Amino acid sequence: MQRIFVTGISTEVGKTIASAIIVEALEADYWKPVQAGELDDTDSHKVARLISNNKSKIHPCNYELHTPMSPHAAAEIDGVTIDLNNISEPETDNHLVIEGAGGLLVPLNDNDTIFDLILPNYKVVVVSRHYLGSINHTLLTIDRLKTKGFDVSIVFNGNEHSTTESIILKKTGVTSIGRINEEKAIDQTMIKKYAERFRPALGSI
């Protein structure tokens, strides 16, 4: 069974939408180890609303922090310290999609970052959203992952920007799972549409 870690080149680049699409495509389980802020409507809640299959299970977060900040800072406000020993992959016989928080090097505490949550057997999907500077952020993220030996794929989020996408793919050599265009509505119908588009590429990673 696949273990797919979804990370982004920055915050607010579409990791949760991409995660929901991958979950739906594979009928996988979903797990967000660390949630910072929006506890009334967490990323786990959003994924649960967006998927429509009956097989996926949403596993609880290990840390739910009240402030929408970097996890290390949110944890300090809550008076807790994030301990990697308290974060363990949920038991499941299904595929599992794991969503990070922010970018790859977002701190969890004084020593650890989101990167330290990615286990050697995980495949990594990087979500890249087009903005000024996104090429640099994407190349740095993928380079760091590949240097550590991870199997990396990419999802582009936003309407087509062919020069950006082509140079990223040329320089990294990673597989593109697909692109999520700007959509008027983000709902189960939209997620299912992209799940069908992405499923063939996901099956080959």
Give the overall silhouette.
globular
Per CATH, the class reads: Alpha Beta
Could you tell me the number of beta strands? 9
Largest sheet, spatial ordering of strands: 4-2-6-1-7-8-9
CATH architecture: 3-Layer(aba) Sandwich
User: What would the CATH topology be?
Assistant: Rossmann fold
Q: Measured on Cα atoms, how large is the radius of gyration?
A: 16 Å
Q: Assign the structural class, choosing from mainly alpha, mainly beta, alpha/beta, alpha+beta, or little secondary structure.
A: alpha/beta
| Average of the residue pLDDT scores | 96
User: How many separate domains?
Assistant: 1
Question: Which regions are unreliable across 5 or more consecutive residues at pLDDT < 50?
Answer: none
Strand content: 15-25%
Summarize the helix and strand pattern as letters: EHEEHEEHEEHEHEH
Corresponding CATH superfamily: P-loop containing nucleotide triphosphate hydrolases
Separation of the first and last Cα atoms: 12 Å
- Enumerate how many helices there are, as a single number: 6
The helix content, as a percent range, equals 25-40%
Notes on the protein architecture:
By secondary structure, the protein is an alpha/beta fold. It has a single domain (3-204), classed as P-loop containing nucleotide triphosphate hydrolases (Rossmann fold). Helix content is 34%, strand content 22%. It has six helices and nine strands, in the order E-H-E-E-H-E-E-H-E-E-H-E-H-E-H. It has helices at 15-26, 43-50, 71-78, 134-147, 162-172, 188-204; strands at residues 3-8, 29-31, 34-36, 58-59, 63-65, 96-103, 123-129, 151-157, 175-180. The strands form two sheets. A seven-stranded parallel beta sheet has the order 4-2-6-1-7-8-9, sandwiched between helices. A two-stranded parallel sheet has the order 3-5. Helix 1 (15-26) crosses helix 2, helix 1 (15-26) packs across helix 6 and helix 4 (134-147) runs parallel beside helix 5. The model has no long low-confidence stretch (mean pLDDT 96).
